[in-house]
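[step 3/7] fold_predict: job queued, chain A
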Amino acid sequence: MSEIFDVFLNFDLSVFEWVQSIQSGILNTIMVVITTLGDEGIIFITLGLVLMCTKKYRKAGLAVLISLLVMTVLNNVVLKDLFARVRPFYIFDLEGLMADKDVFLAAGKGERFNYFVEKVTAGIEKYPEFAAKWTETYEFPNLIDKLTSYSFPSGHTSSAFAAAIAVLWYDRKIGIPTTIFAALMGFSRIYVQVHYCSDVIAGVIVGIIYALIGVLIVKFLFPVLDKYVFQKLAQLVKSKKKAA
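[step 4/7] structure written:
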């Protein structure tokens, strides 16, 4: 699968060069805050749960949660291991990878570390001139910790767009700002340089697909849940209020 990414390397490096040219103290802080908000998808799970608590946005909230569940299975379990792309800060940096060996071992990812060593070594041998250019131009900004997981597609971006498009499907007023935030999330992953631009583009595409899957599931599932769960809960709450 790694050969698929070869054609993107020049493009990805060009994007990193541009990102490095616009970096500033204020922008660093903003991008770190945005990218951290996406950690573990907590902010998007919270959004789904909050929307679920309101009758008006219940479908949107359910679609968000289902989309995130689909994302977790397909993105993090299937696609990342299928493509097994090395993170940008390691792609041609064998010395830096070896220096971080203890991080992999502490995380119980010794097997992945060995795979990364093989990939980085093979990449340097296959593209010596490109590797030299990359290592000369590219420098990890250390705005957030390095990650030991695979790179493609971006999980933060996938979850952000899965949630945003699910909301947008039902309500533009909330969906538009949520989608703008999702776009900023994707850009932040490139800015802090834990993802290639091509990872983020793929994250946008699959995130939209996850959202559409979530919306489709809600279309068939919601009538059943509404009849046997949501209406029953509403009746229970109403009866308790009367008793009080």
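[step 5/7] annotate
The chain has a mean pLDDT of 89.
The CA atoms of residues 52 and 58 lie 4 Å apart.
exit 0
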